[in-house]
Amino acid sequence: MRAWRALLWKEGREELPKVLVGLGLCAVVVALRQNAEFNAEFARNFNEWITIFVVVCGIVLGMDSIAKESSKGTLAFLLGKPLSAAEVLLPKYVIGAAALLVVAAGAWATVYVDLEGLGSDGYRYGYGSSGAWSPHLKRLVEEVGYVNMLLVSLTSGLAIYSLIFASSMVADHPLKGAALGVVLLIVLGIGIEASNVFKHFPALKPSFYFNIGSGKGKIVRMVGDPWLYFFRLGATAAAMAVGVAVSIALLRRFRGAGLGWKPIVSGWLALIAFITVMDLTPESRPPKPGPLSVLTPEEGAYLDLAVVGERGYVATEGGLAVVDLRDPTKPELLATVEVPLWSMRRIAVVDSLAYLLGQRKGLPADSLGIAVFSIGDPAHPVFKGHRIIGDDIEASWDWGRCGEGLILNGRWGGKLGIVSFALDAEGLPARADDLVVEELPADYKNDPMSGWWNHKLSIHIHNERIWVGYKEGFLAVDARNLEALQETVRVEMSDYNKDYDAHKSRLITREGNTLYVQRYWPGDLVAFYINDPNTQREIGYWSFSARTTIKVIDGWVYSTGSNGLSVYRQTPYHTYEYVGYWPDELHSWSSFSRGWRRLHLVRGHFYTLIGRSLMVFPLEQAQGGRL
Amino acid sequence: MAAAAIRIAGLVKTFGNHRAVDGLDLEVPEGSIFGFLGRNGAGKTTTIKILMNMLKPTAGAVEVLGQDPHIHEKELKERVGYISDNPVLYDWMKVEEVAWFAGQLYPRWDQQKVAALIEHFGLDPKQKIKHLSRGMNAQLNLALVLGHDPELLILDEPASGLDVIVRRDVLESIIQVISAEGRTVFFSSHLVHEVERVADQVAIIDQGKLLVCGELDAVRQQVKRVLVRTEDAVDFAGVTGLRGVQGEGRQRLLTIFDYGDEAKAQIEQAGGQVVEVIDLSLEESFVEHVTPQGGLPS
């Protein structure tokens, strides 16, 4: 006991300067946050930065364990004393871990003081400005709690600390210990990745993320799920126990052996060579087959597609195109109609009439309007007339058939809502009713992201019922009577869209009696049972960052953007497994998230618009991951 | 025969292809001051580290105070005092702090004795270790190694790296403070004359092998230089224990191990006449042992 007390005293005195430096750095960050440029990065990802900081501290604390005694020459003093390897190491380990805890707690205490004490908020349309916090991270901390945020950072730090601590046993200089430990860490990471161990235990994967904060939803989910929560704690405890046990065994065996730079540098070079070779080696997968067929207009682009029977009706930039889809391997253009002064965006078909939503140029300004085409003879479509609706509707993003009429979502007079159109005897649409879903903030037009994804509604129309995704959640509208739209259900999703103005359009889709709604907080696709139109019951959720059009079919999610199609498969573990994408060169979220394209599944084939073309993919091909 | 404080039998330690210790057999009698001599890299520190269980032997067995240091490490270290070849203390501690710290690591510790030794060496208890000179540092280590009243002291090059004056002081301290209490002292050195002043038993090792071991005088007496007068060119190659021949013409200086009547008769038989038998110092004897051709040109 006396020895323990003395060793703890000694280790504490030795680690104290490091702890003070760590805490000093935390305080410096508060000052640095007043610099907008620094804050832009820090406030956006401060939980990740703190985790990285704690991990770096773990490396610094761990690498000193025995290697520092060895390099300074004090190891012989200790080993000459009547102490077991455990007695030499455990006080070191305990003090190092405690120092890590203090530094991590200091980092989160700094955030607490900054966020709560100083009340810095400042968020409004961009949190890069000095002193402002990221809204969703602010919410993350509030929701998850400081203790759990600390726990997430600390568990990552402790696991790495334990590894570096053990590496330090065979090094005669702290830097060698750290270099060796980091090599082992990378090799371990590659090993875990290569062994694909999580394929067999996918439920455990969320607990293993080194930086769990990288997906904001992951930490919320982990904290909310006792199994994942205790698994992470247990895994960390196991890593710590293994680290200590291996350290004791190594000290017993090697007694502070001096590993030279040669094997460490060789290890690094071998690792770099391995990664480079792996990186340069082309994947052995056969080339992707690509779409079954492609139909590209001679000029302009196809913008929206409706499929009725064996015909495809396409909104072109200047009018309507009709495509024969009888042979999916060879879609053929049957006819095109150009209407001067129109720029089309969306299409809906009701019986023998096609309704194209678009901009009518001049009047004197451009104005939203509906152009009507007769498609009774698909080979000879005829422009029948139009209706200008832009005198009060400023914008619309989706458009579809509902019963014997039409529905659009739109914005007018600082409101977001849906508008129904009934058809007169000639088939021309007349505004029948509207339903305001939400009021926009007074200064919404100042939002730099306005019109990109903010301040929109998404709609899904099925059986004279409309499902609307909006800022705070979703609602159901009974549209059996187009002249009296009736809201039946409104469900709040309780995510950060609710609390902050920079809300995004919320994806919504349906498969049978299941409605899927995007929840931004955490990044989920939430399933509701909608058999009863007046009540909705949440039946599950999956981790999925949906950012484009989605279609859910039998547990598969197909997601399209203006330049790509990607496929995911639902797992039993509340996640979606990525299956494939097309095309290769556009596989990036930044490009993928752009645009909105409709996706049709007809007779085992997907019909969608990618780039400027119409493309067809066989369903089997998509599900095989070989898009 | 006195019991052995240290017993080493067939000790081998290899590092890769290098045999640092190569079949070493050694016994250190209890109560002796035992000088363990060898050139740099001869295997002294490796042997000592094995005695302290800081290295594992490749083969062979060691016993310290009748126990296997690998099995009874902790008990042994309570009975053994050890100063490494590079005795570094925590430089941020004060003298009194390191004395307290070291004391806490032993179940028995005589703090008063350590304080008295610190005072004896003229060290300031409030001084930080980083401000001590090398000599003071060596003296502090000597004071600390005695706090638990060890039966055996193992000192690895205790005066290495010190200037002549300080080295003398430290060795005097070993004689005065340590050996006066009748405990066994096993210390290594490559500085032969310092061993000669202190030790009563010596062993010389080279390339991990024991060359000679015994009482200081016996080791010193083992090699003789013999001045021989001869008329003609005489070949002394047949003389037992001949290490080397210096000089030409009528006078030759022969270096002979274990010189005795047999060697004298062989010299006379070869046509030489012994004029004088010259005793060597331990240092000269050491050089003859550890250099391939001996200390003299043949």
Give a short synopsis of this structure.
Chain A is an alpha+beta fold. Helix content of chain A is 37%, strand content 29%. The relative contact order of chain B is 0.14.
List the defining traits of the structure above.
heterodimer; A: 627 residues; 4-stranded antiparallel β-sheet; 17 helices; 29% strand; elongated; B: 6-stranded mixed β-sheet
Describe this entry's structure for a reader.
The complex is a heterodimer of chains A (627) and B (298). Chain A contains 17 helices and 28 strands. Residues 122-127 and 585-594 of chain A have low confidence and may be disordered. Chain B contains ten helices and 13 strands. Chain B has a six-stranded mixed beta sheet, with helices on both faces. In chain B, strands 11-12-10-13 form a four-stranded antiparallel beta sheet. Chain B has a three-stranded antiparallel beta sheet with strand order 2-1-4, with helices on one face. In chain B, helix 4 packs antiparallel against helix 5 (134-145) and helix 5 packs parallel to helix 6. The radius of gyration of chain B is 22 Å and the shape is elongated. Classes of the chains: A alpha+beta (627), B alpha/beta (298). The A-B interface holds A 2-3, 5-7, 9-10, 13-14, 72-74, 76-77, 79-84, 253, 255 and B 49, 52-56, 73-78, 82-84, 86-92, 100-102, 104-107.
